[in-house]
Write a structure and sequence with these properties.
19 helices; about 10% strand
Length: about 450
C-alpha cells in the first residue's frame, strides 16, 4: 500500500485532456463540479430522460452535459462510471464499446469486484483501467479524506494523469488493488453501516424518536442518533452495493447479527459470568492486542465528553440521562474479535463514519468504569430490554436481506425507515456536519 498527498502541475494536461463522467448522482455531480472548477474540460451525462433538467442545472458552469454515455465516451480521455454497483455491468456493456481509442476508464463504486469485471469484459483491449473511490459522502469536504486509487491495467503515465485530475480534491491518496480495496472497505464500513441501519429500524419499530426519550440523550447517544439519521438521509443504494456485492461484507454483516443475537441471549438468560468474560476477551483482542497501536492502558481517547455532549437533537439535562446497555457497541467489538479484525489497522483508508463509530466504541471500552456500568445495566436493568430485542430483530433482518442478495428487499427496508425519520434530516445533517468536523479534528490517522 502506498500513501501520498496529491499534488503536481497539471497545466499541460488540462490543455489536451477531456474528463468524462457517466452518472450524475450526488457523487457524480460532486466530482463533475470540483474537477471542472479546477480547470479541466468535463463532459457528463446521466439517463437520457434527465438530459434537459441537467442542462438547466449546469447551465452556469463549464460542464458539457451530453445526452448519453456514447457521446461522453467518444470524446473523453479519462472516463469515470459513477453509477450504482448493482448496474455497473449493464451500463459499461452499453457504453464501453464507444470508448475513445487509448482512453483511461475507471469507476467510482464502493465494491470493485463487479466493477473491474465489467470493465475488463466490455471495454476495448486498448483501454487502460484506473479506478478510484472517495471514502466519504458528497456532503463531506474531500480535503484530507482518503481517496483510493486502483491502477489495474495501465501505464505509470495513465496513473499520473488520473492522479493529477483528482488532485483538486486535496484528498489523501491510498493506492490499493481492487481486492485489497474490497477487503478493507468491508472491514471498515460493512458492520458500521449494519449497526446504524439496525438502530434506525429498531427505533422505528418502537415508534420512537430517540432524541425525545430520556434514555437516548447525551454523550454516545448523540453520535448514534446523528449518524443513524445521516445514513437514512442518503440514498439506499449507497449502502446496498457494498453490503450485497462484496463477499467479505456479507460475511461480516452475518457475524454482526450473530454477535448481537448471542450477546442478547446471554443477557436474557442471566449468564453473567459468560457474558462478562466474553466482553472482556473481545476488548483485549481489539484494544489490547499486541498488533494494536492503541492498547487498553492508553488514556488518549479519540473522543471526549466535551465533544460528545456538544451535539444533540434533544434537550435532556445530563443528570437525567439513563445508563445504556449499548448492545450495538458491545456487538461490534465482539464481531471484530470473532473475525480477527483490528480496526486500527485500516485507519489510513477509513471513512469519517467509521472513525466516529470507532471513537465512541473506544470511548466505552477504554474507560473501565463505563464499561463495567454498561455490563451491569445489560444484565440487571430491564430498561433497554425491549429496545435491545427490536435491535436484535433488526440486525438479523438486515443480515438475511444481504445474505439473500435481495436489492429490492433492501430498498424497501431502508426507505420504510427513512420515511419514519424524514422530518428531522435537515437538522440532523446540519448538526452532523458540525459534529464530523469537530470530531475529526480530535481524531488521528
Amino acid at each position: 500500500m502506498i500513501t501520498t498527498t496529491m499534488n503536481g502541475d497539471s497545466r499541460s494536461w488540462k490543455e489536451t485532456t477531456e474528463v468524462g463522467i457517466i452518472g450524475l448522482g450526488d457523487m457524480g455531480k460532486m466530482y463533475a463540479r470540483r474537477i471542472s472548477a479546477a480547470g479541466w474540460k468535463v463532459n457528463a451525462c446521466d439517463l437520457p430522460q434527465k438530459y434537459e433538467a441537467l442542462k438547466e442545472e449546469f447551465s452556469n458552469t463549464n460542464i458539457n452535459i451530453l445526452q448519453n454515455g456514447h457521446l461522453v465516451s467518444r470524446r473523453s480521455d479519462f472516463i469515470m462510471y459513477s453509477v450504482e454497483a448493482e448496474y455497473i455491468d449493464r451500463v459499461v456493456a452499453m457504453y464501453g464499446p464507444s470508448t475513445k481509442l487509448g482512453a483511461i476508464v475507471g469507476g467510482q463504486t464502493s465494491c470493485k469486484a463487479p466493477e473491474i469485471a465489467a470493465l475488463e469484459e466490455h471495454l476495448p483491449p486498448d483501454t487502460q483501467i484506473v479506478s478510484c473511490h472517495s471514502l466519504h459522502g458528497p456532503s463531506v469536504s474531500p480535503r484530507g479524506q482518503p481517496l483510493v486509487l486502483i491502477s489495474h491495467r495501465c501505464t505509470p503515465e495513465a496513473t499520473s494523469l488520473v492522479r493529477s485530475i483528482l488532485s483538486c480534491f486535496d484528498s489523501k491518496i491510498v493506492e490499493l488493488s481492487a481486492k485489497e480495496h474490497d477487503r478493507i472497505t468491508a472491514d471498515t464500513q460493512a458492520v458500521t453501516h449494519a449497526a446504524f441501519l439496525s438502530m434506525g429500524v429498531a427505533w422505528a419499530a418502537n415508534n420512537q424518536f430517540p432524541w425525545e426519550v430520556t434514555r437516548y440523550n447525551g454523550g454516545i447517544e448523540n453520535v448514534k442518533i446523528n449518524l443513524t439519521l445521516r445514513i437514512y438521509s442518503n440514498k439506499w443504494h449507497v449502502y446496498a452495493g457494498l453490503a450485497i456485492l462484496n463477499p467479505s461484507a456479507r460475511k461480516q454483516i452475518k457475524q454482526y447479527a450473530n454477535s448481537v443475537t448471542e450477546l442478547y441471549k446471554l443477557i436474557i438468560e442471566r449468564r453473567a459470568e459468560e457474558f462478562t468474560n466474553r466482553i472482556h476477551e473481545a476488548a483485549r483482542f481489539v484494544f489490547g492486542s499486541p498488533h494494536s497501536i492503541n492498547p487498553l492502558t492508553s488514556d488518549e481517547l479519540l473522543l471526549r465528553d466535551e465533544v460528545l455532549d456538544r451535539f444533540s437533537l434533544g434537550s435532556v439535562p445530563k443528570d437525567e440521562r439513563t445508563p445504556n446497555s449499548h448492545l450495538s457497541l458491545l456487538a461490534i467489538v465482539d464481531c471484530w474479535w470473532k473475525l480477527r479484525i483490528v480496526p486500527y489497522d485500516h485507519m489510513i483508508c477509513s471513512t469519517p463514519l467509521f472513525r466516529m463509530w470507532l471513537g465512541v466504541t473506544e470511548y466505552l471500552y477504554k474507560q473501565p468504569q463505563l464499561l463495567d456500568e454498561c455490563i451491569r445495566i445489560a444484565l440487571t436493568d430491564d430498561t433497554f430490554r425491549s429496545d435491545d430485542l427490536e435491535f436484535t430483530f433488526a440486525a438479523r433482518g438486515w443480515a438475511e436481506c444481504v445474505g439473500f442478495g435481495d436489492f429490492g428487499s433492501y430498498r424497501k427496508r431502508f426507505e420504510a425507515t427513512q420515511g419514519f425519520f424524514e422530518g428531522r434530516f435537515e437538522e440532523a445533517t446540519k448538526i452532523g456536519n458540525e459534529m464530523i468536523a469537530t470530531i475529526l479534528a480530535h481524531t488521528k490517522d
